[in-house]
Amino acid sequence: MLKFSDVNMSFGSVTALKDVSFDIDKGELVYLTGPSGAGKTTILRLLLREFKPTSGKIIVNGQEIQDLRRKDIPGLRRSIGAIFQDYKLLFDRTVAENIAIALAVKGVPENEWFDHVHDVLKMVGLPKQSELFPSQLSGGELQRVAIARALVVNPKIIFADEPTGNLDWETASSIMDLIYGANDHGRTVIVATHHPDVLKRRKGRKIELKKGKVVADTK
């Protein structure tokens, strides 16, 4: 499903990842743990092919991605649902429009957007917020919109980068329940977090990073 083999990543003189190797099976729940700067976000950005590794091999859904041509990168990203701590929503678009963008990118016919958006907003508990703008929502609601946007394209893999970072624990718990629900439906879920309560909430495999190296793996 997903494999890193001897991956190194440097930004100038700074080493972000060093000899990172692991494989993740379909349907796994995996936590990437470690302090800030350990390399968690770099791994997730490499999976999206935001940049190429300095060396090593990355395989996603049976495809080597480190040397993907630019025109093939959108196809990779359509198979991955990404959830970020800062939401990455367009604040001049409504909730429905933000989610519909993901459908447009995947090539879903426009006459099908309404039903998909309605269904996914109901799933995340925001059935009446479709015409609101992000500035009208709370932090927890913004993260639910981000989850809805990730789920609406029915991705094989979901990753969440510190999805509870800005939230109180009650709200964070409800957000994690939505993410766990995606895993319950057979999706591979990768959560980057340093929050100890998240790690305790549901048992999953833990890959611990420190200074760009994998120092522990509970597989």
Note the main attributes of this structure.
single chain, 219 residues, alpha/beta, Rossmann fold, six-stranded mixed β-sheet, four-stranded antiparallel β-sheet, 7 helices, 10 strands, ABC_transpr_LolD-like, cell cycle
The string of secondary-structure elements, in order, is EEEHEEHEHHHEHEHEE
Specify the CATH architecture of the largest domain.
3-Layer(aba) Sandwich
Largest sheet: 6 strands, mixed
Strand content: 25-35%
Overall 3D form:
globular
Round the Cα radius of gyration to an integer and report it.
17 Å
Low-confidence stretches: none
Strand order of the largest sheet: 6-7-8-3-9-10
Q: What's the average pLDDT?
A: 95
Q: What's the helix count?
A: 7
Instruction: Please write the CATH class name of the largest domain.
Output: Alpha Beta
The helix fraction, in percent, is 25-40%
CATH topology (fold) name of the largest domain? Rossmann fold
Q: What is the number of E strands?
A: 10
User: What's the structural domain tally?
Assistant: 2
Distance between the termini: 15 Å
Helix-strand makeup class: alpha/beta
What's the CATH H-level superfamily name of the largest domain?
P-loop containing nucleotide triphosphate hydrolases
